[in-house]
Amino acid sequence: MEERNDTRKIQFTGKSSYIVSLPKQWVLDLGLKQGDPINVVRQGASTLQISPTQYNTRTLQIEDATFEVESDDDNISIVRRLISLYFLGFKTINVMPKSGRFKPDQRTAVKDAVKKMLMGTEIISDSTEGITIQVLVNLLELSVNGAFKRMIHLAKSMLSDALLAVKESNFELAQEVINADDEVDRFGFYIIRQLKIAIQNEYMLKEMGFKNMRDCLDFRLVVKNIERTGDHAVIIAQDLLEFKKPIKKEILSKIQEMNGFALSFLDEACLALFKEDFAQAEKIIQKSTEITKYEKKVLDASKLLKDDEEIFIVRRMIENIRRIAEYASDITEIVLNMNVEKILQKPKI
Hints:
Layout: E1 11-13, E2 17-19, H1 24-29, E3 38-43, E4 47-52, E5 62-69, H2 75-87, E6 90-97, H3 104-116, E7 121-127, E8 130-135, H4 144-168, H5 171-199, H6 202-207, H7 213-243, H8 249-275, H9 278-285, H10 291-301, H11 308-339
Helix pairs in contact: 2-3, 4-5, 4-7, 4-8, 5-7, 7-11, 8-9, 8-10, 8-11, 9-11, 10-11
């Protein structure tokens, strides 16, 4: 958001009122009109903050963006540009071939990205000459917290299902875990989009429940940790599909105990985040080293294994689960950073 310094003169009207005119572009950008109420809050001795009492969220979304695709552009590059424009808050995105028409695989890549990655988007025009994508979801219809809770639930379910697939040698369930990663990413991309919009607008920052821009940056790190949790569940599922080897019950039961601890640790970290609870986060983070006890139990139980491939699979599983516990620990540290000011002593006046 571009910052401008305007100097305006105080005028006197009536018998007791002083008035200052508002910048026209500011009024237009916020979708305000004559007669709309605004809030005026005094901050300190010399500053006034002016903000609308009601806000048209449509004004937050930049209307249109268009980018052209070369015939030799690879699909990953095209999708990356599309996601970047989605993050920036454009309401309509046009993807056009620079000359001629799309290659079939380029067109398919764009359509798949819209379907699997970009929440709240629809293709409203589709041809070999161009694709038009519109973001239909209202900015406040799905809150950041609501999307994040759904994302956590999906990532945890993926991990539990991955271990169940290993236990049952269920290859179909393993494939479902891999497919579910797209849904986790969709929520992650949606949240990033919302955070970028919040950083650019103080009103939306408060509407989304953030105290300041720094909290948005911290929350972005939390979202990344949840995305990685889903990624590690995918690795476990992929290993099952690749090696197709069962794990002995006594070893798998120890792995499930380790997984149960990691998931409960993640739950507690996220609960402290939602409650903005510094004391609880400080208590939780002390448990972070306990994951090594569960890891040792698995390693001890697997000492009798002789098959190198089976040993490799077990060690990969405990590595993935340990990383998830580490992400939970990282989230707890972020909660501490976001709420440390609550424990500061207020200066006596």
